[in-house]
From TrEMBL:
Name of the protein: Phosphonoacetaldehyde hydrolase
SUPFAM superfamilies documented for this protein: HAD-like (SSF56784)
Family: Belongs to the HAD-like hydrolase superfamily. PhnX family.
GO cellular component entries: cytosol
Catalysed conversion reaction: phosphonoacetaldehyde + H2O = acetaldehyde + phosphate + H(+)
EC numbers on record: 3.11.1.1
NCBIfam families, per the entry: HAD-SF-IA-v1, phosphonatase
Note on cofactor: Binds 1 Mg(2+) ion per subunit.
GO terms assigned for molecular function: magnesium ion binding; phosphoglycolate phosphatase activity; phosphonoacetaldehyde hydrolase activity
Length: 272
């Protein structure tokens, strides 16, 4: 039975939201390519700009004081745009080489997709990956049962996240209107900002996402106090961005969609 009568569409992120628990694929590659330049960055630092277009991600990492200090100590000059481009040129082939191994749907993803489709809604998607990267991920995700109705990669438009244009492209192609009756689901600050800037409802995912930053193994083995610290830190970030909803996992999204649908019926709009 159809339950969602007011929503017009759902737009999701990829890595860390629907596939690749913990958004692990890019993480080690970011750390590796900076290490090749003699620069050490922590996993937490590497995750900071996650969700942005990958060239922009490296550009943001190059602005970290720890990175600038290490670079200047080694090369006796400031890090510059040419260095960013060089690091990215090393990053891209390494990531492309491993992406096929990181397309497994996160627990709850396929069930959520079925629920959305049962309600006659389309599923759009945006990503910080380039089209070349997404061409790999989408093929291997499809083999595992996951295939949204539309994909917009970070390099297909002039500006990617946090700008709203990838969401708008999805909305145009999938005829999602009005945009205030659309939901954006993601696991990074840039996902939430993208949704906010577009005027959609926003749902932030904790477990499995990059902002919490735990692999499946870590989520099963880390002490409870450490896990809670990571989760609470991510909650604080998403609350500061005024995400409409913050949920533990994809399993909680169905109930949130039901609630949003009722709020739309009552004349409510997404928070700004």
């Amino acid at each position: 039975m159809k339950e969602l009568n007011n929503l017009k569409g759902i737009i999701v992120d990829w890595a860390g939201t629907m596939v690749d628990y913990g958004c692990m694929a890019p993480l080690n590659v970011f750390v590796e390519v900076f290490k090749e330049k003699g620069i050490t960055i922590s996993n937490e630092e590497a995750r900071g700009p996650m969700g942005l277009k990958k060239l922009d991600h490296i550009r943001e990492l190059s602005k970290l004081e720890t990175v600038k200090e290490q670079f200047k100590a080694i090369y006796n000059r400031e890090i510059c745009e040419d260095d960013v481009v060089e690091i990215y040129s090393n990053f891209e082939p390494k990531l492309l080489n491993i992406l096929s191994n990181y397309a497994e749907p996160i627990e709850g993803a396929l069930e959520l997709v079925q629920f959305i489709k049962d309600n006659g809604l389309k599923i759009g998607s945006t990503s910080g990956y380039t089209k070349e990267m997404m061409d790999i991920v989408k093929v291997h995700a499809k083999k595992r049962g996951y295939e949204p109705d539309y994909i917009v990669a970070a390099d297909e438009l002039k500006e990617a996240r946090p700008y709203p244009y990838m969401i708008y492209k999805n909305a145009i192609e999938l005829e999602m209107y009005p945009i205030c009756n659309v939901v954006k689901i993601g696991d990074t600050p840039s996902d939430i900002l993208e949704g906010k800037n577009a005027g959609t409802w926003t749902i932030a995912i904790l477990n499995g996402g990059s902002e919490v930053g735990m692999s499946i193994k870590e989520s099963e083995s880390l002490p409870l106090n450490i896990k809670e610290e990571k989760i609470n830190k991510a909650k604080y970030v998403f609350k500061s961005l005024n995400a409409d909803y913050i949920v533990d996992s994809l399993k909680d999204v169905k109930e949130v969609l039901r609630e949003i649908d009722k709020r739309i019926e009552n004349g409510e709009y997404p928070s700004r």
